[in-house]
Amino acid sequence: MKSLLALSLLLAAGVAWAQMSVPAGLTPGSMSRVSPLLQAQRFAENFEPALAHPEQARAVKAKLEALRARTGAPPNILLLIVDDMGYGDTGAYGGGESLGAPTPHIDRLAREGLKLTSAYAQPSCTPTRAALNTGRLPVRSGLLKPAMLNDKADISNEILAAKLLSNAGYHTGLSGKWHLGEMDGTRPWQVGFDEFEGFLGVVNSYQEEHPSAPDVANDPVLQAMLRSMPGDRSLWRATKTGGGKALETINWENSRDLDQKFADFSADFIRRAVQQGKPFYLSHNFSKVHYFNMPSADFVGRSATKDVYRDSVVEVDAIVGRLVALLEELEIADNTLVFFTSDNGPEEDSYPDTGVTPFRGAKGMTTEGGVRVPGLFWWPGVIKGGRVSDGLFDLTDMFNTSLALAGVDVTAAIPADRYIDGIDQTGFLLADDGQSAREAIYYYNADMFAGVRWRYYKMALNELQVGSGTHRDFGGLDNVQLMTPTNGYMYNLYLDPRERKSVLIKKGWVPSYALGPLMAVHLGTMAKYPPEVAIRMR
Ligand code: CA
User: Fold this and answer.
1) From CA 149, how far away is CA 103, in angstroms rounded?
2) Whose C-alpha in 102, 202, 436, 511 is 20 to 30 A from the C-alpha of 82?
3) How far is the CA of 346 from the centre of ligand 1 (A)?
């Protein structure tokens, strides 16, 4: 009887699992109460359960205390976030030289630091940036889709890591792309960043006259209409105390120099923070390699193929090298955590102005190609060089990890009415043989719950698949169709990293006892802490 019940549950995997009542997993205690396969501990009702690794926690605590005694200051945090870079673009992840665009500076971070092979973003820009800044999945904040020109995206009700870090004495800055709202009251300097230089949306919004779209670029009537449309196209310079000033209007021609300007600003920001003797938290957000890529003059023709995308990869790599060299010049590299990542998979709609992923799908999809991103951590003397880990890491984890490094008590800082999906990963990242504190990854496509990963098993309840036809091998937003399998798909991501064959019936027995309860508890948190947006199951 028991096995028949299990089978019926298995066949109804997905919604049926989610509708199970599992209140035990929602209160402080071990997830083993809902499944013997699960081990994470929930330490507070509104915080995601985390795997406890007491020995590595002790080792990292001792390491950080010794460093603090030597430097006398809390560590700096530098986030390097590329837009739409593919998992496979850099040499560290199999690209680089093999794609005609060597990335020696990014590869160095991997060689001398920690390379993650299961770092997860959301399927597109705004949701990922919301998750990274708030530690919360986008359904909770309502920032579900890329904000367009004149969009009403609003993050002002959220608590950003930058705000808590600024309150804790950090000098906080955002350089480059924001994409979390352009309305007054929602801008970076109004929600937690002490300084900002950049734009509020996404670069292609400002490139209407780009010559690759001659139907628009060469039509004066259309151009006049476009220019009359509301929306913020400014390059801003702002401080929390002094407010913002629009420096210039961005267009396709001057967009080529944006990343060099952002690099100048970031370098200046770091120098000034050091001169002031303040720890800094700097989120450096590249405009590149989002289409339409426009390499700056020094980088035109620098890749083997001399195309705009690969030239821009070379430019991004050079800027990473420049900022890392500055940390060394200022002798603060040993007290700075550097994190390099991308905000989603490659944007295949804009081929050939696009990156590469070894996984199935691309930006806009919850198959691995859309959400698996590079994740490199570099901190000489603290992170052991040459580490590689497939431990699970979600970009929401940077919220908790940054606060932990700064000594901010996150449970005291976050009101009990909101749920935090991020997990403190300092032990994983900094211990010489650190293990991830994360037991599961949850996949969402906008407001649709799409599935869960536990170990190397993934259960997909909904899947955006690449459609058949003339674009059959390309992912992206243009050519995808929603598949809602009756029983869900189950993939073994080690044996089948491209998610080609569901093994639900053949191999689903054991993993279902973890994946099902994980989904049920996760969706239970949504019932307990109602998100901004109602979640669609199918
Ligand atoms: Ca993006």
Assistant:
1) 33
2) 436
3) 8
Residues within 5 A (CB) of ion ligand 1: 83-84, 125, 343-344
CA 115 to chain CA mean position, Å: 15
pLDDT in tens, 37-84: 999 999 999 999 999 999 999 999 999 999 999 999 999 999 999 999
Which domains are seen in the chain, by residue range? 2-47+441-528 (3.30.1120.10), 56-206+249-388+403-438 (3.40.720.10)
pTM of the predicted structure, to 2 decimals: 0.95
Q: Tell me, rounded to whole angstroms, the distance of Cα 38 from its chain centroid.
A: 25
178 alpha carbon – ligand 1 mean position (Å): 11
Chain segment 354-397, per-residue pLDDT in tens? 999 999 999 999 999 999 999 999 999 999 999 999 999 999 99
79 contacts 343 by C-beta, under 8 angstroms: no
Residues annotated as part of the active site:
125, 179
Q: Do 399 and 423 form a contact (C-beta atoms < 8 A)?
A: no
Please report, in angstroms and rounded to a whole number, the separation of the first and last CA atoms in the chain: 30
| 525 contact partners, CB below 8 Å, separation of at least 6 | 26, 419
Tell me which residue has tokens 């801003």: 236
Q: Pull the structure tokens for residue 5.
A: 């019940």
**Count of alpha carbons within 13 Å of 535, Cβ hemisphere only?**
24
